[in-house]
Design a protein that fits this description.
Layout lengths: L8 E7 L15 E2 L2 E2 H11 L5 E5 L3 H7 L6 E4 L7 H12 L6 E6 L7 H9 L7 E6 L2 E9 L3 H7 L7 H6 L5 E4 L20
Helix pairs in contact: 1-4, 3-5
Length: 200
């Protein structure tokens, strides 16, 4: 009989975006409070209890490896990152396939207003490999999201372009547990020059 794994929920950071609307600056390396965004995302997942964290890289992956402190993370390169978030989600879930993880807690690198408190709430709603959990903000579904392993194949199949798991979650809306997080997080994205004002 195999040993039970220490932590059934693995953290997954989607950090491959090239920041097209930010003049081609990779989002993973945007600075917030003196550190690259990708480090904040990893630290939040760890603070939320994820002992294993996979990070999907794409744009300027070499520079991210060089400049970001990602010791202990599994770095997954997505050669198809320009096709959108769906390809990164597929690459990340595939990388988790052989780890024994039973769920993935997925966060986006360009949402620094979502920290450990929201991630911990979503993670706490994990029950088993059939779990589908999402943070909500005033009742509107957002990130982070938790996908039990039973859903990974279906999500990978439907993930395309920048939709990520949106289509799958819409089709399985009745199965999704929403966890309100508006009191502990702000769900803004860093997409445009104007959004850079959120960074400190």
């Amino acid at each position: 009989m195999s040993e039970p794994i220490e932590d059934p929920v693995a953290g997954l950071v989607l950090a491959a975006g090239g920041g097209r609307r930010l003049g081609g600056r990779p989002k993973a390396l945007l600075t917030h409070r003196g550190r690259p965004l990708v480090e904040h995302a990893v630290a939040a997942l760890r603070a939320a209890g994820c002992t294993r964290v996979h990070v999907v890289l794409g744009a300027s992956a070499g520079a991210v490896r060089e400049r970001a402190e990602l010791a202990g993370c599994v770095l997954v390169e997505n050669p198809e990152w320009e096709q959108g978030m769906g390809s990164s989600l597929r690459a990340g879930l595939e990388s988790l396939g052989a780890t024994g993880a039973r769920a993935a807690l997925v966060t986006l690198v360009d949402q620094p207003g979502i920290g450990a408190a929201a991630m911990a709430r979503v993670r706490a709603a994990h029950r088993d490999e059939d779990s589908l959990v999402a943070a909500s903000y005033d009742g509107v579904r957002g990130h982070p999201v938790l996908f039990g392993a039973a859903h990974w194949a279906g999500i990978a199949q439907s993930a395309s372009g920048d939709q990520g798991a949106r289509t799958y979650l819409r089709e399985h809306a009745r199965e999704v547990t929403l966890v309100e997080c508006s009191d502990v997080a702000e769900a803004y994205d860093i997409d445009t020059e104007a959004d850079l004002g959120h960074l400190e």
